[in-house]
Amino acid sequence: MTVPGADYRKSAKKGTISSRWQLLADCEAGKVSDYCGRMLIFTFSIRIDRNMTLKQFFSAAVIFICLPLAAFGAQKTWSLSSPDGRIVTEVRTGDGLRYSVSRDGVALLTPSEISMTFDDGTMFGGTSDKVRKVRRGAHDVKGIPAMNYKKACVDDVYNFLTLEFKGYNVEFRAFDNGVAYRFVSTAKSGEFTVTDELTEFNFAQDWTAWVPYVKDADGKTFKQQFVNSFENTYEHIHLSQMDPAKLAFLPITVDAADGVKIVITESDLLGYPGMFLNGKGGKELKSVRAPYPIGLRPNGVYVYQDMDYADYIAKVEAGQKFPWTVIGITQDAKSLMDMDLVWQLATPADENMDWSWVKPGKVAWDWWNDWNLYGVDFRAGINTETYKYYIDFAAAHGIEYIIMDEGWAQRAKANLFLINPDINLEELVAYANGKNVGIILWASYNSIVKNPEKAMSHYAGMGFKGFKIDFINRDDQQAVKFCERMAKIAAENHLLIDFHGVYKPAGIQRTYPNVLNFEGVAGLEQLKWSPEGYDEVTYDVTIPFVRMVAGPMDYTQGAMRNAVKGNYHPVGSEAMSQGTRCRQLAEYAVFEAPLTMLCDSPSNYMAEPECTEFIADFPTVWEETVPVCGEIGEYVAVARRSGGTWYVGALTNWDARDLTLDLNFIGGGNMTVFQDGINADRAARDYKKTSAKIPADGMVKIHMAPGGGWVAKITR
Fold it and tell me: How far is it, in rounded angstroms, from Cα 704 to Cα 637?
């Protein structure tokens, strides 16, 4: 008898037969893959005694033959490579559904299980599920227009593998800079209750990672951690050091072998709860998703944070396309800033809708500076006179919007139609329209969820331009559906959206281009209350490689009060930044934000006209973005182009740093430079403005003070 892979050997000892079978299975055309061969090894040995009867021999032989066939006959492995062939994903079926990922032959993720469980006991990724059909192919579409993004066009190039099972498909896509997968329901009708979804990330080694835990998670259960603002600094730790009692929100970036970086996040998160990650003390991470909230009760004025949970995570309809799990992979840190996977995998905007009314821009913001004006002849505060002053400031500097943050409607009632008696909305919107400045209104989740259709229709009809929606603080199915609903209603009323107190961007910004920005970042507001030991500077040079991979960040930069490390302290009414003045200017080039705040008081800006003029001139969307250099937690430099003008920004951590920036790709030009002054290590506001040309070799040498920055505007 001939069996593929059989190795028959006789021992030197007479009367002893030893046999080893290797059962190797491959899906397509019966070919054997090396990977599958390694995974499906079965060894069975029998010793035939001299006194063994013929009947005993044949009984043993039947067992020997049948056992491995029964155990492994259903296992199959499919391989999917990226267009450049460097990234390979192996997908295994037959004993559940597992995937692994390698790059240049080096394992990054070893076999990791994925599955979805329903309340009737059925599963996607079950051990008995059989592949009915396999589809493979390549997708190559260049130059897709991208609205309100870090580049004008995106190339969408990948290879795909779709495995079709009874009732569902699993889709894999392999890009040159990552891998993504999702489940898709193929049922024709009905509603399904998802009780759990499992995604494993079994890393090949115990690498280090930048981990954002849920803030203040100590002593809290997972159910208590599900309610959070998605704001925290990062712990740089080994995977095995992750606290099993804490949830980490996405994205997470892992530092793998030979400088390779792996980032985990999601895309096309619509109508389904978002993913947290949890470590169990090894090099493996597992997904955790919030159960569906029931019995929501207000906790305070602004949020629903007091609730019970159902015994399921989501109810979905037949045909549901579940979110993409995204595993971005780059050779170095800087390339993370040029990753488009979240945008590529998101559902495109409705082509039948008119989006031309969507206008990104800068915003004069009131809350961070506590409405703190000086040199005026009226009492500053949440009143009509103060907001007219903000409008005048915006108009004078070409700033497109102001925000009226919390307090324009009466706080205690969480009612958007109970207006602060010191505010005349009709007068303000007419005044702003006359100066070509738009007004965006703040609303808490608690206030707008009551009747968003009424609120948005009413205020759009008055002439307001958008809503900043705050204190969502969850990413369960209900919260995710809320965000989609807000985006849709806002779009119907030609209103912009800025989500605050919210989970990371996960593709809705492409689906609804009126969603311009997201918080989900421990931005500058943290310095209004964080203690002296809080480190925003290191955070600033970490987020471009982690959080910003997911999408834009409403970090709210632009502070004119700046403090060196030893001088920072929290002040709510006259807040300050950590690091230098030039750091604040450079963040307008480094951070991605189609709706960008000027956080400080108009009075402070007018006292600093040189800096104010510079940041007011910044674009907020770009035709081209080029990462220049960077190392996570150490430094970063980015170049962005709008029309024929380039802006280059650089930041360092608390170490003074000299860098040589390779700007050859710009092709020369005249630079207007803001650089840290010679005494910026003592007086953080010290800066120097200079003019220079890009050297003939394109190499620009820069120096940054501790906590410093450098920024240039380059024209030709």
Answer: 12
DSSP 373: -
Is 95 among the residues known to form the active site?
no
Instruction: Specify the pLDDT at position 414.
Output: 85
Q: For residue range 208-259, what is the model confidence (pLDDT) as tens digits?
A: 999 999 999 999 999 999 999 999 999 999 999 999 999 999 999 999 989 9
Active-site position among 525, 540, 587, 600: 525
> For 303, what's the count of Cα atoms within 13 Å in the CB-facing half-sphere?
15
The H or E element spanning position 395 is helix 384-396
All residues at 6 or more sequence positions from 121 whose CB lies less than 8 Å from its CB, including other chains? none
Task: Please tell me the total count of domains within the chain.
Answer: 3
In a domain, 274, yes or no: yes
Q: How high is the pLDDT of residue 20?
A: 27
For residues 197 and 339, the answer to whether their CB atoms sit within 8 Å is: no
Helices (H) and strands (E) in the chain, counts: 15, 41
Amino acid found at 432: A
Q: How far apart are the first and last CA of the chain?
A: 78
User: Quick one: how far is CA 579 from the chain centroid?
Assistant: 26
Q: Which of 26, 400, 406, 470 is flagged as catalytic?
A: 470
The predicted structure's pLDDT at residue 296: 80
Q: Are residues 65 and 170 in the same domain?
A: no
Task: Single out the residue in 72, 91, 117 at which a domain terminates.
Answer: 72
**Three-class DSSP category at 176:** coil
Question: Which string of DSSP letters, residue by residue, matches 501-549?
Answer: S-PPP-SHHHHSTTEEEE--S--GGGGGT--TT--HHHHHTTGGGTHHH
Question: For the chain, which residues score pLDDT lower than 50?
Answer: 1-73
470: annotated active-site residue: yes
Let me know: does 575 contact 623? Beta carbons within 8 Å: no
- Residue 302 has a pLDDT of 67
End residue of a domain, out of 72, 89, 110: 72
Q: According to the model, what pLDDT value does residue 640 have? A: 98
- CA proximity to 589, closest of 709, 669, 716: 709
Whether 606 contacts 393, CB under 8 Å = yes
Cα distance between residue 161 and residue 138, in whole Å: 9
CATH of the domain at 251: 2.70.98.10
Is residue 390 a contact partner of residue 401, using CB atoms and an 8 Å limit? no
Rounded Cα distance between 492 and 101, Å, is 42
Judge contact between 498 and 514, C-beta under 8 A: no
- The secondary element (H helix, E strand) that includes residue 481 is helix 477-492
